[in-house]
User: Fold this.
Amino acid sequence: MNMERIVIANWKMNPSRIKDALKLFKTTHTATRACKNTTVMVAAPAPFLPLLAKLPGKQVVSLAAQDLSHQGGGAYTGEVGGSMLASIGASHVLVGHSERRLQGEDDECVARKMLSAHKARLVPILCVGESQRDADGAYLRTVGDQVVQALQYLTASHIAKSMIAYEPIWAIGAQAAQTRDVEEMCLYIRRSLSDRVGPNRAARIPILYGGSVEVRNAASFIEETGVQGLLVGRASLHASFGSLLKKVDQVSFET
Ligand code: PGA
Assistant:
């Protein structure tokens, strides 16, 4: 059986020039066209989004922003609003990435951003993850609390139209988590979602894993953990990203 899966390329603050962004997007687009079971999305820096949206590949590769303001508009120098992003062709937006939280974004701000994304009709991808693991399992509560707080202003139908990315901070740009740890957290997050929207709706909310996903481990997360997709940083900037997509696309599930 082949189930739909999702891979999001998080380019972060890369590349430096539009010329290279267009090249990278085209490579990703070509690799995506060969995929049958995988939805591919590029979370590009905001200045590149309008140009990428004009490329023919936009129908194949969806576009996500990496952040949005929690404000609707007005005197907020430097901020980018959800409706601005939607109007230039983004369909999704990362919210609460740990690299944003490091800049001072707290749970309240993340919750307001989740609401702003829905108001702008963008699908938010809520990023959650603990900074460290402990023997007593406090990390589960940490992530559970992040989920509960982030969803506090949303209705059940908003929540049903959101995505969650579990990204343990210690695994980002370092060493990937073990598949059994991701499986445990995926179940835990699903249970938190279920408390808000009931088990049927919760079962359909995509949960992704991110943190040092590479060509050699990408398929195992899809095969072994119950996540529906991956959020890929560094590896999405390399030529081998096409091989990563292929490996994910070829995972087949026993019925
Ligand atoms: P990484 O980044 O794949 O480079 O670890 C993932 C992310 O931060 O989204």
About this structure: Residues 10, 167, 172-173, 210-213, 231-235 surround 2-phosphoglycolic acid (CB under 6 Å).
